[in-house]
Amino acid sequence: MPVTPGADAAGRTAIIAGNGLLPLKVAESLEKQGRAPFLVPIRGEADPALYRYDHAEISVVEFRKLIGSMKAASVRNVILAGGVRSRPHFSDLKLDGPTLAAIPRMIGALGRGDDALLRAFISLIEAYGFRVVGAHEIVPDLLAPPAARLTNRKPDKHDEHNIAIAREAARMIGVLDVGQGTVAVGGRVVALEGAEGTDAMLERVAQLRNAGRIPPKGGVLVKCAKPTQDERADLPAIGLSTVENAARAGLAGIAVEAGRTFILGFGETVAAANDKGIFIETFGSTDS
Amino acid sequence: MPVTPGADAAGRTAIIAGNGLLPLKVAESLEKQGRAPFLVPIRGEADPALYRYDHAEISVVEFRKLIGSMKAASVRNVILAGGVRSRPHFSDLKLDGPTLAAIPRMIGALGRGDDALLRAFISLIEAYGFRVVGAHEIVPDLLAPPAARLTNRKPDKHDEHNIAIAREAARMIGVLDVGQGTVAVGGRVVALEGAEGTDAMLERVAQLRNAGRIPPKGGVLVKCAKPTQDERADLPAIGLSTVENAARAGLAGIAVEAGRTFILGFGETVAAANDKGIFIETFGSTDS
User: Fold this and answer.
1) Per-residue pLDDT tens for A265-280?
2) What φ, ψ does residue A188 adopt, rounded to 5°?
3) Interchain pair B204, A207: CB under 8 A
4) What is the DSSP letter of B227?
5) A68-117: per-residue pLDDT in tens?
6) A63-93 b/e with 16+ CB inside 10 Å = b?
7) Which of A165, A178, A216 sits opposite B189 (nearest CB)?
8) b or e along A144-159 (b: 16 or more beta carbons within 10 Å of the residue's beta carbon)?
9) What are the beta bridge partners of residue A80?
10) Which of B5, B8, B22, B91 has its CA 20 to 30 A from that of A244?
11) Do residues A188 and B114 lie in contact, with contact meaning Cβ atoms separated by under 8 Å?
């Protein structure tokens, strides 16, 4: 746990890092800007590559250590980046002062879904004097650009129809605070993302395809933010693995919400899509 | 293909049989009523036990054989029972007269989802002079009884909350014509049924549970009919395997819509639920 406080004492930024590529991309971006980040990798979730930065690893239940290590590192700003698959088990909670104080807020939120949990977590961190900022404020270049076609392949009219119905379904499951992704094939929504995540949903679509339970080709993945989403946490993301899994599921392409979805590893992601012959398209969050 | 026409020439009833237990239950019920059914098992979908009845097997694309064999067996009424996982591939279609005539209607429907496809199929069969009736009209005793608790275990207030949010999600995915089932665990909807079906969704919940990605116990499966559902086809169903899979996923119970959900093998299904310690409860389609 090499903590070197004071590197940017006036406004050092911590990244509480869940799974996926986003935390690393945010860390690299801060580094390029000359602002050495402080990492708080969540055990069992965060990418090992993050441990080369100043860091203090925590488990998802170690709220006291989280607060203490960020104070010791003179952190002012906090970014939440990456998903957290595990949910705290109350039997694992270490009942120190700050954790005890956090429990009522977190219990209320656990009963209301991901979005509420994140909001509660954000307000709790802010109650300790930190400022929670969105990853997109630090790395706006990672956001999907407005209404753009990024690949050689373009959606045809069947694809456009699939995008339209998958968007409608994604909007509804977003209202329910269940998930951010849907797949439509042959004019029908065939998969809705729940707690399993996008990659597992695409694997399911591949299985349905192999079993002959959906038409043999085509279809789209749509991802968009929840209408009520706090943009400081959990914006949807796609990347190289999304493209590879979409291709394996036989999809024609991917459509994501512009300005509210991260495209991680933009160059390699677009190159892989071109290589696999699938499209990536973005749509405005207000057009419909 | 032993076809003995005339057993009930005035109003013989055919069962076009997809997968699951429902076709067999309907056949047994007709038999008990002294009305020998004519079976049309769909190849690769129907239960082999159905082949002991007068029958003519078809593939999902053999519309001509379907119409011809039902006419030869003096069928008047037609029941659609059981799900059909495979979707016709146009390359497989035998382009005889009736199939050619059916194509425009079916293509329109394929673009609109399960419900539209079933409606198109029903109106097509009726155009050939048959009367399509609901399985529930023949076997009303298989329907879930109104607002009842069928098992020893009763839902507690956490279960009631999970039922409420899972019902809301099930209603929304029904409006989208995507699926009929949802699972809520710990006050959060974690799985939405798409083309994979209920058993595969429950398997997914079991995996999420084993991976520690949802709370370690509790939760409910909810199934209800789509708001726009044609009740002559594809009413939701639960049975012994649903109970076993729900128990394997660690759920506390199952709640289904009264009067619009089949409980197949009622006695053994309820007995299994009592054995596994899970509840089965029905809710009214109008209360909310």
Assistant:
1) 889 999 999 999 999 9
2) -140, 135
3) no
4) T
5) 899 999 999 999 888 776 655 555 555 566 665 665 555 555 555 566 66
6) bbbbbbbbeebbbbbbbbbbbbbbbbeeeeb
7) A178
8) beeeeebbebebeeeb
9) A16
10) B91
11) yes
| CB within 8 Å of A185: residues ≥ 6 apart | A162, A205, A214, A215, A218, A219, A220, A251
Return the amino acid letter for B207: Q
Q: Which residues of chain B are within 8 Å of residue A173 when distances are taken between CB atoms?
A: 169, 172-173, 192
- Read off the tokens for A46: 């965060």
Cα-only R_g, chain A: 20
Nearest to B169 among A85, A165, A176 (CB): A176
Nearest in space to A158 (alpha carbons), one of A192, A189, A190, A185: A185
B133: distance to nearest CA of chain A, Å? 26
Distance CA A247, CA A236 (A): 19
Among A202, A118, A213, smallest CA distance to A166 is for A202
Token pair belonging to B111: 């673009």
For A225-250, how does the pLDDT look when each residue is reduced to its tens digit (9 = 90+)? 988 777 887 788 999 999 999 999 99
Q: Is A53 exposed, middle or buried (0-12, 13-18, 19+ CB in 10 A)?
A: buried
This complex has an ipTM of 0.75
Strands (E), chain A: 12-17, 38-41, 75-81, 131-133, 181-185, 188-192, 220-223, 237-238, 253-257, 262-263, 279-283
- Chain B contacts in chain A segment 31-90 (CB below 8 A): 85-87, 89
Instruction: Let me know: does A251 contact A245? Beta carbons within 8 Å.
Output: no
Give the whole-angstrom CA distance, residue B93 versus residue B62.
7
All residues of chain B having their beta carbon less than 8 Å from the beta carbon of residue A195 are: 188, 190-191, 208, 213-214
Quick one: which of A175, A286, A193, A209 has its CA closest to A242?
A193
> Which residue type does A93 have?
L
Amino acid identity for residue A75 in this structure: V
pLDDT for the residue B10: 53
A residues 90..119 contacting B (CB < 8 A): 110-114
Give the C-alpha separation, A31 to A25, whole Å.
Answer: 10
CA pair distance A136, A147, nearest whole angstrom: 18
